Each structure stands twice: as C-alpha cells, then as structure tokens.
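With this grant's support, we have settled on a layout for protein records. A representative record follows, to show the layout.
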Amino acid sequence: MAIKLILLIVFFGVMVYVGMYSRKHATSVDGFVLGGRSVGPWLTAFAYGTSYFSAVVFVGYAGQFGWKYGLSSTWIGLGNAVIGSLLAWVVLGRRTKVMTQHLKCKTMPDFFGERYGSDALKVTASLIVFIFLIPYTASVYNGLSRLFGMAFHIPYTVCVIVMAVFTAVYVILGGYMATAINDFIQGIIMLVGIAAVIGAVLSGQGGFLHAIQTMAQIPSDVPVTQGQPGAFTSFFGPDPLNLLFVVILTSLGTWGLPQMVQKFYAIKNEEAIKKGTIISTIFALVVSGGCYFLGGFGRLFSDQIDVEANGFDSIIPTMLSGLSPILISLVVILVLSASMSTLSSLVMASSSTLTIDFLKELFFKKMDDKKQVFTMRVLVVVFIIISSVLALIQYKSSVTFIAQLMGVSWGALAGSFLAPFMYSLYSRKVTKASCWACFLFSSVLMVANIFWRPSFPVIMQSPINCGAIAMLAGLVIVPAVSLITPKPDKKLVDNAFACYEEKTEVEQKVALGK
C-alpha cells in the first residue's frame, strides 16, 4: 500500500507541476485551446494516442471483447493502429492543419460554421459535442474507479472526486499545452505498463504457448459457434460480423471525434505531421494491440469471474488482482494515466466549443480573449461536475457496461461529424444541407437506440453496432444529399480551398525541381 500511495502522490504532483509550468501558454484563446498551434510531433502524437485509449479501452472494451471473441479481439487493436491512427493522420492530418489555420478555426463546430458560413450549423454542432461527450466522460470514470476499488479498496465515489479534482487543476492552469505535456508523460507510462502486465499475466498462466493451448480447449458459448472448441483462438474468432462492427466503431470513429481531430489543428508543421504519423501508429499498435491481446485471455480466469453478477467490466481487474504489489501499482498508474489524458481532452473539447461556438456566438458576441479563457476555465469545472454526477448515477443504475456508454457517445459524435468533416476537406461540392442531414440522422438514431433499443433490428440493438452503422451511413448520406440540394456558395468554397493552392518552397529531397 505504501508503494501505491507514493507512486500516486508523485504522479499527481507531476501533473500539477506541469499545469503550473504551462500557464504561460494559456493566456489567449489560441494558446489555451491549441497551444499556439506550435505543438511538436512527439507531444501531438502522444496526445492523440492517450486521448484515444483510456480506461474505457483497458478495462471495458478489452475485457468485454476479449471475453466474447478470444484472441481475435486483437484485430480491434490492429484496426485502431492502421485505420484509427495511421490512415487518420494520412487522410486528415495535413489538410485539417492547412484549412483550419486558413479559416482561423479553433474547434470542430467552428470549422463547420466558417466552412459553410452558417452560425446555426456551428451552434448545433457545439450542442452535439457537449451533450454526447458527457456519457463518454462518465464511462472513463467508471473504468478507472473499478480498478482503484480492486487495488485500494477505495469507494467508487471517492475515486471519481479525486480524479475529477486533479484533472480540473492542471487543465485550468495550463490548457492544451499542459494536457499535451502530461499526455506525453502518461503515454510513456502506458507503453511500459502494457508490456509489463502482458508478460506478468501470461507468465502466471504457464507462458504464452501454454495459455494458447488452454484457451483452445475452451468451448464457445457464442450462438454462432455454440460448443465449438478452438473458436477463441481462431483467426476471426467465434463471431466475425460483430467483431467487424467493433473494429469500425473504435477505429473509424476517431476521424469524427472533436477531441481527436483538434490535435491536427495544433500541430506545428509538415515535418511534425510526418513524424507524428509514425509515432502515433506505433503507440496505438503497442497500447491498443496489447490491451485487446491481454483481454483475449480473459476466459482463462473464468473460475474467478462471474460475468452475470459483476459485468464485463470486472474481467480485467480480476485478471490483474493476482499480480505483485509493484505491478498492481504500475497498472493503477497506467490506467490513471490513460484516463486522465482522455478526460483532459474531453473537457478541453467541450468547454472550448461551448464557449467559442455557443455562448460567444449567441449571447456574448463582444467577448474578448481574456473573458473567453476565463469562461472556458469555469466550464471545465462545470463539465467535470456534470460528468462526475452522471458517472455516480450510472454506477448505481442498470447501465453497467462501459462499452454501452462509449458506443452511444462515439456513434453520435463520429456519425454526425466524420463524413461532413472529411468530405469538406476534399470536395467543393459538399452542401450545408448534407451536413444537417448527417447531424440529424446520427443524433436521432443514437438517442432512439438508448430509449427504444428493443424495437431496433437485432443487428442494431447493440449501441456499438448502431454507432458503426451511423458512421458508415454518413459516408453515403453526405454525397447523396449534396447531389440533390442547391450548390454551395462559390465564394465561400473558393475562399476555403484557396489555402491548398498557395505556393510554398521545399527542399529538392521532397520534390524535384524543373
């Protein structure tokens, strides 16, 4: 217990110090929200990765999908690395940086407002962000608090409050730069921790090959492959279709999440984007691939786990409960790092969009930089309080699985924003009406899934499957609606795309001269 407490005190002390150190970068709106748009590749890549992977992945998704799909759940981690990191940086990174800087956008709703000349679009997008980031934040608290309960026997309520207070302190003090530096430190802890934990868990099961042999003998209880031994060690697992939906939601979803995409707004330059792409992909491969790989061995602990009584979220804590005190301390710091980095990104995204795109747009049009930064700091506190209360209510209600909350949140946000945002960076033909159609379709679909889930087709009753379908549907809705609605204003479009045509000189190793 002494080791755990010392590590926690050091961890929280470093977080607060970084917040104080970064105060000089958080005096203006641009500095508080985007770190002055001059953040390097390592900080940006780690900020992207640590915002991506939290206790939701480590405790919730890795446990639930490892139990359901066995070792094939590792495909989710590979999808996160290739689609959610590598392709996201390649497809969105450069164009997002160039166009958002040209249009002077600070948030994703701000981008929609400037790109289409629509204040209503901006305000609506900001409301979607604020409403649907709250359940995601609650799910982050949930995963962390379950692990703290296992390691320290601390009540859930205390865990939520302590985490909320420390996150609020360093975000309020240092803004985006504080979160980026802390994300880098936390990312290193995650990389070391995942490797150590996988090695320790497999060692406790007689090594990798013995663990695989034992897993191969467990009969499947999934309806598709009922009673079939070896399903949990097969290439695509016992339920490939539902596994595919999880890969789509967790990988493609990052392309439309404000807290992820806004990392590209802040990156420094072309060289930083190239390096960041590689660093981010490797980070995702180790952290996400490692989490799901570890979760795939969950059934080896079936004699210690009662999923029906305690839910899927109890699987990973049970797997880790037999580790040495030092390793458990490392795991707690690992998940704390992952959760606080994600939480800080969520509160930054929510408070900034509510201030810049909602309050300033509708009520305080003459709000200066100083007042905007102050308002964002106040809203960081408000957002953390609301999500903390929701986490406590959710803990005592019937919604027991972290994955459900994240599925609803990601489905609504990425379903609403992914297609309109991506197409807007590449096509001059995307219309304002197509953005509205996508916003409306995904938001209504996910809200309906919460309240009328039994009425949905079987394949869409899972919030995860429904969220993945919302994202894919958006990729069809935007071009289809753009074809049948009035063309966008030519002046607005020309202004937005002018940034891509500006001439810039590069070295010959990048492009050959005449």
Notes: The mean pLDDT is 79. The two ends are 68 Å apart (CA to CA).
